[in-house]
Design a protein that fits this description.
The chain has 15 helices and ten strands. It has 333 residues and is an alpha/beta fold. α6 links the parallel β6 (142-144) and β7. The protein is globular, with a radius of gyration of 20 Å. It starts with 30 loop residues before the first strand and ends in a 9-residue tail after the last helix. Mean pLDDT is 90; it is low at 1-26.
């Protein structure tokens, strides 16, 4: 995912020594692989930790090292370079990465609905992103966002704005401090993160999801090199099935895994872990996954995303859906 927090890379030093493990193409016997996250252990990765904590990876004869990331974590680069077998990215990051020569393909999408949004104070009276942007244009509101991210470019195109020429649009520093101190302030967020944080401080937010505006890339997407997928179908199949089972378990009862992740990430308390798990559930499970399974993706969604990125000038070539992802229902056919 395009993690919307800026700052230094927090990936553990051991990551620098990661080397890709080539396993048997016929199976997953004894395979050791690495999954590089793009953020700290949080509920958005709950299914992966559940698969590890509950022995699901082991049952599929896999040894999986889950490596936490941080702001700016280059998971896609580590996967594309072969330093890690699997990583987490967003769908738009996959398409843009491919356009820049990175050999990456999507295998499993955690979020069917992108959790990226813009939050305002609950009593602001604003009812949509369009109203937020109008208030910014009118000089009535300050909006903190990363203007270079694809979703921001999408909004600028949709509402015919030049974000660089709007003094009310300022940089986002990853903090909610200014939001909490100013009533005429809005900021980008993940619905699973900042809104819960400010609610704990007694200032509930209203969140408008970017997906409601028509931009909805799959998020928290598991990626691998296409070359690795082709060479190791047994390992990849076992890994995908393990994480699907892990997510099924986590969505059924997240608390045991939240306890584990809370120990790995003391910056978030256990109550917040459980609260986030509840908020994100409808973003992960929907009518599509009910029919096709958790993590499944569709040609139509990838086609729509590619068209949008091409229109925004973020890619030069429009890849086909199956250049972007491996069909979860009919893999490696």
């Amino acid at each position: 995912m395009w993690r919307t927090i800026v700052g230094v890379v927090l990936i553990a030093g051991s990551l620098l020594g990661i080397s890709a493990c080539s396993g048997s193409a016929a199976g997953s016997a004894g395979a050791k692989v690495t999954l590089v996250l793009n953020w700290r252990p949080e509920p958005e990765f709950g299914g992966f930790y559940a698969a590890q904590n509950e022995g699901t990876f082991k049952a599929h004869r896999l040894t999986v090292d889950i490596v936490p990331g941080g702001a700016g974590a280059p998971a896609i680069d580590l996967v594309a370079s072969g330093k890690a077998e699997f990583g987490i990215a967003s769908a738009d990051e996959v398409v843009i990465g491919q356009d820049r020569g990175k050999d990456v393909v999507a295998l499993f999408a955690v979020y069917q609905t992108c959790p990226q949004g813009i939050m305002v104070h609950a009593d602001s009276g604003l009812t949509s992103i369009g109203e937020v942007l109008h208030a910014v244009q009118a000089g009535k509101l300050t909006l903190a966002m990363e203007k270079g991210l694809p979703y921001a470019r999408f909004l600028a195109h949709k509402y015919k704005l030049n974000l660089d020429q709007l003094p009310g649009v300022v940089g986002y520093d990853g903090s909610t401090a200014v939001y909490l101190s100013k009533r005429d302030y809005a900021q980008q967020c993940f619905i699973t993160s900042e809104p819960l944080a400010v609610k704990e401080k007694g200032q509930p937010a209203r969140v408008f999801l970017i997906s409601e505006e028509g931009y909805n890339p799959y998020t928290a997407v598991v990626i691998a090199r296409r070359g690795y997928v082709d060479e190791n179908p047994g390992i990849v199949r076992a890994f995908v099935e393990s994480i699907r089972q892990g997510w099924q378990s986590y969505l059924k009862d997240p608390h045991p895994t939240d306890v584990v992740m809370a120990k790995l990430n003391p910056l978030m308390n256990l109550a917040t872990f459980d609260a986030v798990a509840a908020v994100q559930k409808p973003l992960i499970e929907d009518t599509f996954t009910a029919e096709h399974g958790l993590g499944a993706m569709s040609d139509e969604r990838w086609l729509d995303l590619v068209r949008q990125l091409k229109t925004l000038g973020l890619i030069n070539r429009a890849p086909t859906p199956h250049e972007c992802y491996v069909d979860a229902e009919n893999p490696w056919k």
